[in-house]
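In this supplementary section we document a worked example of the pipeline. Step one takes a protein sequence of length 365 as its only input; no multiple sequence alignment statistics are reported here. Step two produces a three-dimensional model, which step three serialises into C-alpha cells for compact storage. The input and output of this example are shown verbatim.
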Amino acid sequence: MMKVCGSEGTHEGTTMRTISLFFASLLIASSLPAQDKPADTSMDMDHMQHGGFMQGGMHHAMAKGVKLEQKIDGHTIVVRIGPMNLPAHTSHMKMPQPADLVWQIPVDGWLLGYSPKLVDAGGNEVPGRVLHHTAFWNENRADFLCPNKEEHIFGAGGELTNWAEVPGYGYRVEMGDKIRIETMVHNPTDTSFDKVYLEVTIPYQQAGGGTQLKSVYPTWMDVKSCGNSAYDLPAGKSEQTGTVTVNYPGVLLGVGGHMHDYAKQLTLEDATRKETVATLEAKVDDRGELLSMPTVLFLDRGGYKFAAGDLLRVSATYDNTSGKLLRDGAMGIVVGYFVPADDTAMSALRRKPAAHPMPGMSHDL
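The serialised model returned by step three reads:
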C-alpha cells in the first residue's frame, strides 16, 4: 500500500522508487501477540527499568551476558548484539531484556541505511517475530522536534525490514559519537531459541571521500508528543491526539507510520496552516492484527515544506475489538525524514552525552 506522487521520468522515477522503498522500510511492524506463559526465572538476572522512548518505563528482568560487537568490512559496519535466550511462549513483559548498550561510531561521515536480521550462534536466521523492537539513539544529538530526547536514528520491529539507501542523502555522524541501542525481545512462537543475535548492517560513506551528501534528520511525530510512545488502548473505538512544533524550516521527503493491532488510521496535520499533510490508513486482518501501513511521498512538490514555528498535529484512531483494556497496547507515530533549509542551524542540537560506563566492544565477529 504505497502512494507515490510526482512524475516518472527515467532518472527521477528510479530515484523515487528507491526513496519509496526506503520509506516503506521506515515502518516498525506491530508487535505480534505474545502469550503469557511465564519464563523460567531461575537464570542469573537482576531487575532493571527501561526508561526509553519505545518502552515507556516498563520494568523487566535483565538478561545477563548480552554484549555489543562491531565489524568493519570495506564501507560497511555490522553491529551485533547478543547472545539472547528466548524461551517459547514468553511475552515481552516476562522475558529477561538486554540492558541498553552503547555503540561508538568508528567513522566520520554518513550512515546510509540499516539492514537488521536475527541469527543464532551458527549464523542461521531466526524468525524476526521474536524481536519486539530495537531503537538506536544518538546520545550526542538532541531530537530536533523533541529536544528533551536523544535523536532517534533507527528503529525496527518483528518485520525486520531494511532502511534502504537514499541517493544523495545520509545521516551525518562524527567519529566517537555514542549510539545507545535499546532492544526488547519476546517469543510468541512454539519454539525456544538459544543464543540469538541481532545483527544490523550499516553501509557508510567517509567524509571527504566522495560526493558531498545532504544530511537528513529522522522525524518521529508522536501522538504522545514528546513523552513515552506507548499508551493504554481501551476497548472499542478511540482516538489519541498530540502536537509537536517544528523549530527549523525545511522539507519532509515523505512519511510512513507505526501503530499496533486494532489500528484504523494515522493523520498528520499542519495545524498552523490548517492543512492535512498525510492520512495513513492501517491494513489489518479479520482479527485486528496489523498487517501494514502505507507510505506517502511529497516528491512532486520538492518535499512538504515546513516553516519554523509550524504546529503539527498527529492523531491515531483504533477500534479495539478484543473487549478489554490493553495495557501499553497502542502507539501512534508518523515517521519520516526531514531535510533542513539550513543544515548549519542544526549544529545547535549537538551535546555531550550523559556519562555512563561503556560496554566492552570487539571489532571482530
